[in-house]
Specification:
The complex is a heterodimer of chains A (463) and B (487). Chain A is an alpha+beta fold and 463 residues long. Chain A has helices spanning 15-23, 41-48, 53-66, 77-81, 102-114, 125-130, 189-213, 218-226, 237-252, 258-269, 276-288, 350-353, 375-385, 412-418, 449-459; strands at 9-12, 28-31, 70-76, 87-90, 135-138, 144-145, 157-162, 169-173, 216-217, 299-305, 308-313, 321-324, 329-332, 345-346, 389-398, 404-410, 424-429, 437-443. In chain A, the strands form six sheets. Chain A has a five-stranded mixed β-sheet. Chain A has a four-stranded antiparallel β-sheet with strand order 12-11-10-14. Chain B is α/β, with parallel strands linked by helices and 487 residues long. Chain B folds into three domains: 3-88, Alpha-Beta Plaits (2-Layer Sandwich); 113-300, Rossmann fold, CATH 3.40.50.261; 310-484, Succinyl-CoA synthetase domains (Rossmann fold, 3-Layer(aba) Sandwich), CATH 3.40.50.261. Chain B has 16 helices and 20 strands. In chain B, α7 crosses α10, α13 (391-402) packs parallel to α14 (423-432) and α14 packs parallel to α15. Classes of the chains: A alpha+beta (463), B alpha/beta (487). Chains A and B meet through β1, α1, β2, α2 and α13 of A and α1, α2, α4, β4 and α5 of B. β1 (9-12) of chain A pairs parallel with β4 of chain B.
């Protein structure tokens, strides 16, 4: 409609003017405008003035939503990522042993024992503390993601997810289940025994299954999960079952011993989070497609190492913007309480970065009860995320919002302007090495990392 | 002596989140040391053992475990009862699902929600560029009321708008009329054939009100911001707005109004090839005033020029001092009055001086003939525009009236939407005690919500001379002053 014939009126600022329009009988959409995060005025103005930004963000969204993610293989990490038995990957932005949190240290000790570097996990502590004779790098630097501590070592098996258009790949470990597990920092004998079984039986069987079956379209499963009460971060029940449904015939036909197959099906079926480790690399692969787009203010990674929360942005290369990881609010297992919890940890916030998890909480209202909230809070959380995202996902639809697309593509400038922080659904690890999971809940990034990213974007605007 | 119980309820299922909540509530109950209410999964059996409870007599993950340790038997019983109550409690609120939608936090979010439209941005100046740019990118036209936006940002906004086929009205755009709705400080005017493009807020209000009194209505009045015809901004929005109106079949007469423009820009705009007849009201020394411009437009449209309303008195009062003091809310009205006064009085002091004028060091201290624009940036920082809150101007009015060197005081009062709901009320007591004549330009249309006639009559009864035409008001004030001055 032409401006001269009147367009719908939106009013940000003085309510007086909105009132005046209403008094003349015209409707007004009032904006609840508030000042941005302190000290960001100049950087916001510089980034909003960057003529590359609209097209750059549009390109980022097109790649994030358009890139396919197929599960193509299951392989040992050593060969896939070129890791020796002294190379360890971890979740989140870079960190060293000295600053590593309890659960990350616990997972590293367990991984060292799993690789046979030591007999007892604790015996690996001097090596890690000495800082030599091993490497410790973020999963994200190797095209991989890992939930919670996210530790990947050479003998662990990985899901391989591929973009068929480019052959680009992403990787993630196999999910161990809940409770006392390596990714939550536990490293007891049962943890190591489970890991050995996963490498000896689970990984090879899944490999045979997927190779017999052929590639599985993970985004198609993710889209269906949102119709079935999963949000693909803290709730993966439907996804796990759909994966089993697809893979089981091929696994049965593999000729593997019935006992192994039964063990695998029991293990996967008893672990509601099994699909999380496929949702994550699928999200990682699509978000990586948007890396390195000059001028784009879209976030391509959110990840935590248990000490720091870091983000990476499409327009700022591989630079991390970090701040202290926060404590989640939520419910605790058994007698554990808030004092037992480690700050936020894991690469799993890659799901929120891609519009799933907390961003699609309205599709999985069961999740919101982790903080004693109500279904209305799940609706409100997802709706709030539309304020800070660039687009609505064309594939991921949220039934209760009339199949509106999931809020996708966090825009740094919108976070800074609205002070609305990304909503993340997460598990909570015990803060002491060896404890394991203590609860689950909701968390946000530290606000300060967004102005840091904004400043870097502003510094890159061509003069 | 503590009491402990581990119960197994066969085949009773509750989801894990509910059970975590029940466990937490029971653990927090008085006298309870530890509690676990959970399905009998392997993990939960481990947790149970970790809490020091005996192993339950259950072999199925579909059994519900209730394990409680309390300070005493009565406390244990109470906790068990509480557990049962919590497990049996109906879920969900009677009020049902809250689907209310909180308001959007940015103009762009509003545009995505209800469709793009015209975004009125009146946030503080340092944030205005960002809000406006984002609204443009979301497909909106923008009316930018905010001031303190840099020239570079103004140019960036207007170029971004043009690239998208959108219009930025502003910055510092106080008034517009589009789609029959007055925006910002807007007088209520009838629809008609006239399309106005205005680089002046109060100048536009004066024109709209004069033309409305004469019976000429407007199709649209598009503000473009007071700097649009400067050399730097180079008429970017003006040309766009003129072309928009030129292409509009319902607009049969154009009018371009501007504060004193850059000569080159003015010449270029005068040379634009337009199909619709156009009148120019480009203010400045030697140029027609706003009232003369309104009269030209009326003649061009074949509408008779009426006698502009005024409320004068045969005995305006004694002139104590020799000086004219103009205290304005509207910058263009202040400018217009200075141009007329300077021709008779010579150099004038002002916070927005003419080229030949003198700049007042402190706009609030009166010396000689002087004119203050209370809407200027330095006097609005951190406070509302004087049209909304005229307290500062009215306070200075009282000071000017008490000053023995004051001969005549000239002020403006604006009506319409956005303006003070009853500007006469605050002026009446000040005017009643006035020691010298007060002349008022009353900028209002007959349909304005404050009531044009009634406001004029109240101000007149309080002792002021009231004019619709700011030029006439200024000339009247100059006449009064001339009577006192020695020949």
């Amino acid at each position: 409609m032409s401006l001269l014939d009147g367009r719908p009126i939106i009013a940000a600022g003085l309510e007086l003017f909105a009132d005046a329009v209403v008094a003349q009988g015209a409707p007004v959409q009032l904006v609840d405008w508030q000042p941005p995060m302190a000290g960001t005025e100049a950087d916001l103005a510089a980034v909003l003035a960057d003529p590359r930004r609209p097209a750059a963000n549009a390109a980022a969204i097109e790649r994030i939503t358009g890139t396919e993610a197929l599960l193509v293989d299951v392989v040992p990490a050593g060969a896939a990522l070129g890791l020796s038995d002294h190379d360890f990957l971890h979740a989140g932005p870079p960190i060293d042993w000295a600053r590593a949190s309890g659960p990350l240290r616990g997972a590293l000790l367990g991984a060292a024992a799993f690789e046979g570097l030591v007999d007892e996990p604790e015996a690996a502590e001097p090596m890690f503390a000495a800082g030599t004779g091993y490497t410790l790098q973020p999963c994200h630097h190797h095209g991989a993601v890992g939930p919670m501590a996210g530790v990947i070592s050479a003998s662990m098996w990985l899901f391989v997810v591929e973009d068929p258009a480019t052959g680009r790949r992403s990787y993630c470990s196999l999910n161990e289940g809940l409770g006392k597990v390596l990714r939550y920092g536990a490293y007891g004998a049962e943890v190591l025994a489970r890991l050995r079984w996963m490498s000896a039986v689970l990984g090879p069987l899944l490999q045979q299954g997927i190779r017999n079956h052929g590639p599985i379209d993970l985004k198609a499963i993710l889209a269906q999960m949102l119709q079935m009460g999963d949000e693909a971060h803290n709730r993966n029940r439907a996804g796990t079952l759909m994966l089993m449904r697809d893979l089981l015939p091929a696994v049965l036909e593999s000729g593997a011993p019935a006992r192994d197959i039964a063990d695998v099906v029991r293990f996967v079926g008893g672990n509601d989070h099994f699909f999380l480790n496929l949702a994550m690399p699928a999200c990682k692969l699509t978000l990586d497609a948007a890396r390195g787009i000059d001028g784009s203010s879209v976030v391509v990674a959110m990840a935590r190492n248990g000490t720091e929360f870091g983000i990476q942005v499409a327009g700022t290369g591989d630079q991390w913007f970090t701040g202290p990881a926060q404590l989640a609010e939520g419910l605790f297992l058994g007698s554990y309480g808030p004092n037992d919890a480690n700050p936020d940890i894991g690469d799993s916030a890659i799901t929120e970065t891609a519009g799933l998890g907390g961003f699609s909480m309205a599709a999985a209202p069961a999740i919101v009860r982790f903080v004693g909230g109500e279904v209305s809070d799940a609706l409100a959380a997802t709706r709030r995320m539309y304020e800070i995202t660039e687009a609505e996902h064309p594939l991921y639809a949220i039934p209760v919002l009339d199949f509106r697309g999931a809020p996708t593509g966090i825009d740094v400038t919108r976070v800074v302007r609205t002070q609305v922080l990304p909503q993340i659904n997460t598990g909570m690890a015990g803060k002491l090495a060896g404890v394991g999971q203590v609860g689950a809940g909701l968390v946000t990034p530290p606000a300060e990392i967004f102005p840091k990213a904004l400043a870097a974007l502003a510094a890159r605007v061509p003069k | 002596m503590s009491a402990e119980r581990v119960l197994v309820q066969r085949g009773r299922y509750a989801d894990s989140v509910t059970l975590m909540q029940v466990s937490r509530d029971v653990t927090e109950a008085a006298g309870v040391q530890a509690a676990l209410v959970a399905m009998a999964t392997e993990l939960n059996r481990e947790l149970l053992a970790g809490l020091g409870f005996a192993a339950p007599a259950s072999d199925s993950a579909n059994d519900l475990l209730v394990a409680i340790r309390a300070d005493s038997e009565p406390a244990l019983d109470a906790a068990l009862n509480l557990t049962e109550q919590l497990l049996a409690a109906p879920r969900g609120r009677t009020s049902g699902l809250d689907t209310s939608l909180p308001p959007p936090r940015t103009s762009a979010a509003a545009a995505r929600r209800g469709g793009p439209g015209l975004a009125i941005v009146s946030v503080p100046g340092q944030y205005a560029f960002v809000e406006a740019m984002d609204a443009l990118e979301a497909g909106c036209d923008v009316l930018l009321f905010s001031d303190n936006v840099s020239v570079a940002q103004e140019i960036a906004l207007k170029d971004a708008a043009a690239a998208r086929g959108r219009l930025v009205m502003g910055p510092d755009c106080g008034t517009a009329v589009v789609g029959g709705v007055g925006l910002g400080f807007a007088n209520v005017v009838a629809p008609g054939p006239l399309g106005i493009v205005a680089a002046s807020g109060t100048g536009l209000q004066q024109l709209l009100c004069l033309l409305d009194h004469a019976g000429l209505g407007v199709r649209a009045a598009l503000g473009v911001g007071g700097r649009d015809l400067s050399a730097a901004v180079a008429g970017r929005a003006t040309e766009q707005a003129l072309r928009l109106l030129d292409a509009d079949p319902e607009t049969s007469q154009l009018l371009l109004l501007s504060k004193p423009p850059d000569a080159t820009v003015a010449a270029r705009l005068r040379g634009l090839a337009l199909a619709t007849p156009i009148q120019f009201a480009l203010l400045g020394p030697g140029q027609p005033d706003l009232t003369a411009a309104a009269e030209s437009v009326l003649r061009a449209c074949g509408i008779p020029v009426p006698a502009w309303p005024d409320w004068t008195t045969t005995n305006p009062g004694h002139l104590r001092g020799p000086y004219l003091r103009g205290l304005f809310c509207g910058g263009t009205l202040c400018d217009e009055a200075m141009l007329l006064a300077e021709a008779e009085l010579g150099q004038l002091g002002s916070n927005i001086p003419l080229e030949s004028g003198r700049r007042l060091a402190d706009p609030r201290s009166l010396s000689g003939h002087c004119f203050i624009d209370f809407g200027a940036d330095e006097l609005t920082r951190g406070r509302a525009h004087p049209m909304i809150d005229p307290a500062l101007r009215n306070q200075q009015l009282a000071a000017a009236l008490a000053d023995e060197s004051t001969g005549v005081v000239l002020i403006d009062v604006e009506l319409g939407y956005g303006a003070h709901p009853d500007p006469a009320a605050a002026l009446e007591p000040v005017l009643g005690a006035a020691m010298c004549p007060v002349v008022i330009s009353l900028i209002g249309s007959r349909a304005d919500p404050q009531g044009f006639e009634s406001t004029a009559e109240r101000l007149h009864r309080a002792g002021a001379s009231v004019f619709l035409s700011n030029a006439q008001a200024t000339r009247y004030a100059l006449d009064l002053l001339a009577r006192r001055r020695p020949a």
